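sorry for the late reply, my laptop died twice this morning and i had to redo everyting from scratch. anyway the thing you sent over, i finally got around to it. pasting the sequence first so we're on the same page, its 60 residues, then the predicted structure underneath. double check i copied it right bc i was rushing
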Amino acid sequence: MTNHLAHFAIEPDGESYNLQLTMEDGTVVAVGVTFDQLDLLGEEIDRRLDTDQDLLPPKL
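ok and here's the structure:
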């Protein structure tokens, strides 16, 4: 069963960041990440969305 994301937050923490994911069931996952990791995550999200957008039928 997949737990769906309800909210997320990114906050600076010194030279790194705290990524907090809140699930629909209220579970909170907090992860420490570096700038480079956030950058890679953003790039991968952009690639995925671009690919998915190319698969959508044209709007009329």
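Strands lie at 5-13, 16-23, 28-33.
thats about all i looked at so far, will dig more tmrw
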